Amino acid sequence: MRLGQAAAALWVNEKTLDNAIRTLGLTRPLDADTVRALGLAFRAKYRYGIPLKRGFPAVRDALKRPAAREDDAVVRAVMAYLPDVERGIEQEKQTYKPLSPGPGWRDPYHPAIPPHLRRHPAIRRAIRWGLDLSLNDWKVRRPGGQLLLQLGESLRAVRLLQKGDQAMTLVAMWECFVRDGVKFVVIGGVAATVHGSARVTDDLDVCYDPAPDNTAKLVRLLNNWHARLHLPREPEARLPFVIDQRTFRDAPALTLITDHGRLDLLAHVTGIGEYAACLAASEETEVGSVRLRVLTLAALIKAKRAAGRTRDREHLIELEALHVLKQEQAKPPPARSRRRR
User: How many Cα atoms within 13 Å fall on the side-chain side of residue 70?
Assistant: First the structure.
């Protein structure tokens, strides 16, 4: 089963299921037995607070060996939800019936993607991985600045619900950068959003000019935003941290928490180079009242390949599919032949 199909069967969103697959080290596409075990493991997590790494092996063993159900009272209780999980799987199998390829064949998962594109290796790889390219196909038809404003508004709404904070997060950061004349190029997830990525990011990654006059502007802004080091295991920790010109000389890559959200500052991007190289590999995007320099899609793909990190694999698959969709979008429409009367 593919990611979207399995997520719908288990009544979880795709991001939750994707995180579970990565945490448990599972392979894709998922077979039916793995989906059943995942469904029961989610029940154990939400009902009894059992972590997935402990619950998944237990329920998978119980599915294979019915005798193992008698060893643990919690496992016996969780197995009571098996009929519900089976019902969800069967419903999705009926919804996503496999269709044999041939003339007139349409992929039920990606009805918006034309057949000739679904034969492209990058598109086939993305579909096999479980990505819903219909959403990407919609996004590549929208201006990048509009997509960035939508992302900023979505994050602002989430922040209002969580903390009641009126800050505009990403929007406030890049507007202040432009207002104060900071030289930078947007990279990472925000740049991917401009090009039609469906992944949601809550941090701003930029490559900055390390010239002293530019870092002086950054020092002033970051101190005004009460920036501090971001520790993934302790996000609320407030360690003593002084930002000055020496900070940028000693640590050219900084991961910070500010009043407006997370900010990653890099003086060098793997696979691209320093600020001058990133600037040459960027394009201008109008976002509301400001103009941003954003890394091109080809440069983003190059950087992801060069980084070679496991967590970037899915993002690279999406970016390569986006490249195909944007090339198709850039093609001129076929000329209509005039019929003779």
Answer: 3
